[in-house]
Specification:
alpha/beta; Rossmann fold; GMP Synthetase, Chain A, domain 3; 2 domains; six-stranded mixed sheet
Length: 442
């Protein structure tokens, strides 16, 4: 499928508004095409097919995927170049993952892949209410081989919307830009919004009456599994009554799941990706049941993936959305499978801990460390940067906040924010490192 500028997005032509049966038939056809492409062009998948005794002709529907092996993150790290399906001269942009769970992986994008990225973001922005009349301030980086910033820019350019490329951080510059250029939409990591609000309140900026009407969050959740706003989302909404939209994406997927105005899950673009949700037994789970997100990319020319295990935990919602789209949706992420923590008998994921810390006013920054205890269980240490000591017992207050939210409290260490920042951005990380897993792997 071509993802050029002339691809229509009106409801009559958009596959997301077709019937579930039409969407299923469409994805089956796209999958058959993707399998033939892998069989002809991918060194890695050619080896996999030979080793496991299957061919592209054996896969005729999405259901047939269940018989195939998975692609693991380790495969990408060990055999990175073998995933490339084109001659190196056709690669026009090199991208790397952030290395959240290991060494970064390089992806080579062709010109067609960049068109696909633009198409994906155009649809995702439109889903979140952005139009060609909008002006969007991007508080994300376009450098450091980062896919997201490039994708956002390409999608907005394709849409015809105005783009303001400010980059991350720098509250003063962000507000100066908002005042000068009057954007109606901000795209950023949600917790940074609280820093913007704090700066505005400290400097007498009337942010509630600014031009900003919409905030699209990346990298952090804004909702609970039932789609209600989480602590971070509620705190932003209480401070700044704007429209809030959450998204989920990754470099490996080359696709974005964006909420619509009804805020009940991230919509899939069926022409770009196939999603399976699997349980601990590696079998599909019922709709609405959380499991690991497994993706098969569609329409990727450079480095397509087959049954790639993301490690992310979410559920699939197949009921039609009130917006009229019949494509399935994903619930907010619960966490990463490899990051599951068992703390004092309670199972949780880092986002639940982050949500407490992101909504504690005196916390400047933090890092969560998990390690093995002498008893063989998980020990969680939260290192918190506090700028100036509030007139309370900070450790006790934080533990009370944790108990009220997740029923258990980790070990709390108070540190200088500069020392925490050195951990957050070790080795010039482009994303803040907020979770460090020191447990011995089985």
């Amino acid at each position: 499928m071509k993802f050029d500028r002339n691809t229509p997005f009106d409801q009559a032509d958009d596959i997301e508004f077709a019937s579930p049966e039409e969407i299923a038939g469409f994805q089956n056809r796209q999958l058959r095409s993707a399998m033939k492409y892998l069989e002809s062009n991918s060194p890695f998948y050619q080896r996999m097919m030979k080793a496991h005794g299957f061919t592209a002709a054996d896969v005729n529907s999405v259901e047939d995927l269940q018989r195939l092996p998975f692609t693991e993150k380790a495969d990408l790290q060990l055999y990175n170049s073998d995933f490339l399906c084109v001659e190196p001269r056709k690669v026009v942009d090199y991208i790397t993952t952030s290395g959240t769970l290991g060494d970064p992986v390089t992806f080579g994008c062709t010109d067609a892949d960049l068109d696909r990225l633009a198409y994906n973001e155009h649809k995702s922005f439109a889903c979140a209410g952005v139009t060609e009349s909008s002006t969007v301030q991007l508080m994300t980086t376009l450098d450091k081989r980062f896919m997201a910033g490039m994708a956002y820019f390409l999608g907005l350019r394709r849409m015809g919307a105005g783009v303001v490329r400010v980059g991350n951080g720098m509250p003063q510059l962000q507000w100066d830009t908002i005042g000068r250029l009057q954007p109606d939409t901000l795209m950023c990591v949600p917790s940074f919004i609280l820093r913007l609000v704090e700066y505005a309140e400290a400097h007498g900026i009337d942010y509630r009456n600014s031009s900003v009407k919409r905030i699209i969050g990346i990298g952090e959740g804004l909702r609970e599994a039932d789609f209600s706003l989480n602590l971070l989302g509620r705190r932003i909404a209480e401070k700044w009554p704007v429209e809030l939209y959450a998204t989920y994406s990754s470099t490996e997927m080359g696709a974005t799941f964006s909420e619509c105005s009804h805020g009940c899950g991230g919509h899939v673009h069926p022409e770009l990706i196939i999603v399976e949700i699997i349980g601990d037994d590696d079998r599909p789970v019922p709709d609405g049941t959380p499991g690991e997100v497994v993706v098969t990319t569609l329409g990727v020319e450079g480095m397509p993936l087959l049954r790639f295990r993301t490690g992310d935990i979410a559920a699939k919602i197949t009921a039609p959305c009130a917006c009229g789209r019949n494509s399935y949706r994903l619930t907010p992420l619960i966490g990463r499978k490899n990051n599951m923590i068992k703390l004092k008998g309670t199972t949780l994921y880092p986002p639940a801990i982050n949500d407490v810390l992101d909504n504690t006013p005196y916390v400047v920054n933090y890092v969560v460390e998990v390690r093995d205890s002498a008893a063989g269980t998980d020990e969680v240490v939260v290192k918190v940067g506090v700028a100036s000591a509030p007139a309370i017992n900070v450790v006790k207050d934080l533990k009370d906040r944790f108990r009220s939210r997740i029923r258990v409290a980790p070990i709390v260490e108070i540190m200088d924010p500069d020392d925490v920042a050195a951990i957050n951005f070790a080795n010039n990380s482009r994303k803040p490192i907020k979770f460090i897993d020191l447990r011995k792997k089985p």
